[in-house]
């Protein structure tokens, strides 16, 4: 990975309570704060290659109908099933989990047309960057 999962590195829970979803929820909002003490990344790809990889993955590989973007649970080589999260979504809705409010889908208001246009631009960006550098 390029950057570590700061939530996974934290050792002490930091709880926050909220009731905006009609019931009181307790969220663990911990994350490792001493980022200066982290060792340098072992990843040696330059920023351009990482960006091309990002556009390729989200434009071509990532299945937005069944998987969610979830930094809290993800690790290299794994995908997160959107139906396994605290607030499942329909396949036509993108799911990007808010790591500090597990019932909040950050991408929940993106329209089908918006999703189509974003994916189209990710594919176009991948095509342009991978052929022209």
Map the helices and strands.
Blueprint: H1 6-9, E1 15-18, E2 25-28, H2 47-61, E3 67-68, E4 80-81, E5 97-98, E6 101-105, H3 112-132
Antiparallel strand pairs: 1-2, 3-4, 5-6
Helix pairs in contact: 2-3
Give a brief description.
With 133 residues, this protein is an alpha+beta fold. It has helices at residues 6-9, 47-61, 112-132, and strands at residues 15-18, 25-28, 67-68, 80-81, 97-98, 101-105.
Describe the structure.
The chain is an alpha+beta fold and 133 residues long. Helix content is 30%, strand content 14%. It has 3 helices and 6 strands, in the order αββαββββα. The strands form 3 sheets. The chain has a two-stranded antiparallel ribbon with strand order 1-2. The chain has a two-stranded antiparallel sheet with strand order 3-4. The protein has a two-stranded antiparallel sheet with strand order 5-6. Strand 5 (97-98) and strand 6 form a beta hairpin. Helix 2 (47-61) packs across helix 3. The longest helix has 21 residues, at 112-132. The two termini are 23 Å apart.
* Helical segment count: 3
Helix content: 25-40%
| Shape category | flat
The class by helix and strand makeup works out as alpha+beta
Proportion of β residues? 5-15%
Q: What does the average pLDDT come to? A: 89
What is the end-to-end distance? 23 Å
* Count of DSSP strands: 6
The order of strands across the largest sheet is 1-2
The major pleated sheet works out as: 2 strands, antiparallel
Q: Report Rg.
A: 17 Å
pLDDT below 50 for ≥5 consecutive residues: which ranges? none
SSE topology string? HEEHEEEEH
């Amino acid at each position: 990975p390029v950057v570590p999962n700061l939530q996974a590195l934290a050792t002490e829970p930091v709880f926050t309570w909220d009731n905006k979803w009609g019931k009181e929820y307790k969220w663990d909002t911990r994350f490792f704060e001493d980022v200066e003490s982290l060792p340098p990344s072992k990843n040696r790809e330059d920023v351009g290659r990482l960006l091309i990889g990002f556009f390729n993955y989200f434009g071509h590989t990532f299945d937005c109908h069944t998987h969610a973007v979830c930094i809290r649970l993800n690790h290299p080589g794994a995908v997160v099933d959107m139906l396994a999260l605290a607030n499942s979504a329909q396949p036509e809705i993108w799911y990007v989990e808010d790591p500090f409010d597990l019932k909040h889908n950050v991408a929940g208001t993106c329209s089908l047309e918006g999703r189509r246009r974003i994916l189209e631009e990710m594919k176009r960006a991948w095509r342009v960057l991978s052929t022209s550098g």
